[in-house]
Amino acid sequence: MSTAMNRRDFLKTAAMTGSALAAAAVGGSPRPAAAAGTVNWLAWGGHVEPQGIKSFFDASGIRVNHVGMSGNAETFAKLKLSGASQYDLFEADGLWPVRYHQEGLIEPIQLDSIPNVAKNMYPEFKKIPALQVPGGAMLMVPWGWNPTVLVYNKSKIKTPPTSYEVLLDKKYKGHVGFSDQHEFLWPVAAYLLGYDPFKMNKEQLNRAKDVLIQIKRNAPTISKGWNEQLRLYVEETVWIGLSSPGRALTIQSSGGPAMGWERPKEGYVGWIDGDMLVKGSPNRDAALAWLNHIHSPEYVATNFQRLQRGSVNRGGVELLKAQGMSEMVRANLMDQPEMALKMRLIEAPANQDEYAAAWNEVLAAS
Amino acid sequence: MNGPPPGPPDRRERALLWGLLPVAVVQAGLFVVPMAIMFLYSFWSTRNFQIVTTFTLDNYRAFFESWTYPRVLLRTLGTALVITAATLVLAYPLAYFIVRYTRRCQKVLLAAVILSFWTSGLLRAYAWMAVLGHGGIINKGLRALGLIDAPLPFLLYSPFSVVLVMTYFSVPFAVVAIYSSLEKMDWTLLDAAGDLGARPLRAFWHVTLPQTMPGVVSAAALTFVPLVGMFFVPLLVGGPTSVMIAPLIANQMQAFQLGLGAAMSFIVALIVLAALALPWRYLDLERLER
User: Which of A141, A172, A253, B261 would staple B252 via disulfide (CB 3.0–4.6 Å)?
Assistant: First the structure.
């Protein structure tokens, strides 16, 4: 048998391969079929417990397709441009759900209609005024929360820092954490200058930009994501930066130095994240069933043991304590839900374009 | 009018044109159309996550109105030039050695050079971070030997690390390009130059280098062009005050500043095209190849 391939055979094979790849690509899209029993979930990777997805499928026959999401602004831009109909549930932080609601992309949810939420969620998170609509429904089902505070290496910084000014101190040059998460950096400059973090005008943004450039000059790099930040803290490249209280413990337990954390006197922001139901979702019931599943104490305990942050779920927190993880619960303020409502929640600025342009200039500056 | 009017293409020419069709389709689909879309977007703006399709030059004005963005672009071009030069300096002797002195295991050595392509670039960049970082092998080793008290700050997140890691990424491309030129070279000319009294360095300068110039130019282009658009290496190993243009463009796109992002991309694309055109304009490569 000849193994030589003529041009016709080659073209035929190439066409077949192309068709197969195209079919595979279509099959790999978030919605493989319009069949009932599927939930298309656009969510942060950290919220996904593969075992939880499997046990949910085993119990209900509903398949959960997880699609990873990135930042709030990027996701908002994507969904506003292309619509949210390819998903049933997606996530956001802080007051971003308000923007999605204004765009008519989401359906508010009566939290007590989801049994595990009704039973397990701290009452404080069921009625967050800024996220509630008339009638009591919430724009999102809260999941986790965290304040963004100063975390520092206790062996390098002997006096606990109480002000963001420490980030500008030249004696820490090369050791200040500076991430690409501008939502958490603008508030630093704004609080130092006495401005509202999410309502700065162009002139205020210009001044805030200069402050952030100064902080950037004190940093060894612009870190991308928590894993890189963790490495920088553990190997003691970074001594001080912004993070959540529980992460001080994570750094230590990852082999890093003893870490402390302080609330800056100027004020601080934080986030509560959660899931939103897409308006008109054809898989609404399946999506609500999945929300019920992830708010079970078992799913929450598994996820937050790994995530290390504040949880809105009392049932999960109690389970973690029962499993002997009280120190972790305390370090992450999991048993202090009232703290979450004292934070200024991050939100989408009305002049988002000016914020984006200013941030780009911060990045570009020498 | 001079000469006969052009007649209908004969069968051979038609076959040739049909043969070029797939190339034309690929070029149009993967290069011309995206460039045209980008060009169009560069004259549009975005407001509050919406594309405003009113013609404007604001994006180009925003790029040039302050020194911030042109400085990043110049820094990127300067860094790319330095890395291209470093790559050629390293790749040429290596390719020369492989062609001239390793006849028997030439293919094995060449395979060894391109072996690094088998691993993800991202993974290799992370590996360099593990080597150069404060807790990396070099700093730990020097500390263990008592040669330093604190980690060397320039090893990572500095122009040094950007040049080092990007040179590492570029060398295999350059070696392959120069190798192909050296392999075709007529080595008897070198012997003739020697017989006529030329010293090795002079023979290299007047015989070897001109003959392999097409390979050097290809290697320079293969190195310089990807470097200008390199995204993840400067992002991972670069310092906070030496950002390069590609991560900045990516940031514009992520923040839905599509107009400015497209204008920046188009300016970079024009520079890259000019960089590619220059060697062909000023070097008579066809003569060199003869």
Answer: B261
B21, B134, B231, B260: which to substitute to probe chain A, counting the most A Cβ within 10 Å? B134
B54 touches chain A (CB under 8 A): no
Determine the CATH number of domain A37-143+272-336: 3.40.190.10
Closest residue by Cα to residue A284 from A39, A35, A33: A39
Q: Report yes or no: A202 and A212 within 8 Å, Cβ to Cβ.
A: no
Indicate the pTM of the whole model: 0.83
Query: Which of A70, A237, A357 shows the shortest C-beta gap to B257?
Result: A357
Q: Provide CB contacts within 8 A for A291, sequence distance 6+.
A: A89, A109, A114, A117, A141, A275
The 10s digit of each residue's pLDDT in B76-89 is: 999 999 999 999 99
Per-residue buried b or exposed e for A188-201, using 16+ beta carbons within 10 Å of the residue's own CB: bbbbbeebebbebe
The second-level CATH assignment, the architecture, of A147-269+348-364 is: 3-Layer(aba) Sandwich (3.40)
**How many structural domains does chain B have?**
1
- At B198, which CATH number? 1.10.3720.10
Record: contact B257-A356, CB cut-off 8 A:
yes
- Alpha-carbon distance of A217 to A207, in angstroms, equals 16
